[in-house]
Design goal:
The chain has helices at 2-11, 13-18; strands at residues 20-24, 30-31, 46-50, 54-63, 76-82, 88-93, 106-117, 122-131. By secondary structure, the protein is mainly β. The protein has one domain (2-131): OB fold (Dihydrolipoamide Acetyltransferase, E2P) (Beta Barrel), CATH 2.40.50. The strands form two sheets. The chain has a five-stranded antiparallel sheet with strand order 6-5-4-7-8. The mean pLDDT is 86.
Length: 132
């Protein structure tokens, strides 16, 4: 099981670790994570696209009773963040008191430790949002 999880994590590395999506050359629409097909076109011409790494909170909540393996982080802010590229991402908001997580908050994405799976001996990394 651990080998399967580790392989999946490595396969998803470009978008997970470097925020790489893709852009439909015909429409200019940006997708994250990258897609092979888009609505109305099963074979679009796509190009790799680096997301801006910044955004604005458009919806948010505070998680007070967190699921495993995040129980030690509660309470924490969770938000939908819209990037200047038009992509909406869900991310944990960190380095700020939860009462300051509000719609309109400008954030940047940072590469951070997400959680550790001790049973599989895997540490998961990804992006979290921090105030600018």
């Amino acid at each position: 099981m651990a080998d399967t999880l580790t392989a999946r994590v490595w396969r998803e590395q470009p978008q997970r670790y470097r925020m790489i999506g893709n852009k439909d050359k015909a429409t200019g629409k940006v997708y994250f994570p990258p897609r092979q097909a888009v609505p109305g076109n099963l074979n679009p011409e796509m190009e790799e696209f680096n997301l801006s790494g910044t955004g604005e909170v458009v919806a948010c909540t505070v998680i007070r009773v967190a699921p495993t393996p995040f129980t030690d982080l509660a309470p924490y802010g969770l938000a939908v963040i819209e990037t200047p590229d038009g992509v909406k991402l869900t991310a944990q908001i960190t380095d700020v008191p939860v009462e300051d997580v509000k719609i309109g908050l400008k954030v940047k994405f940072e590469f951070r430790r997400i959680f550790e799976d001790n049973d599989a001996s895997v540490i998961y990394y990804g992006y979290k949002a921090v105030p600018m």
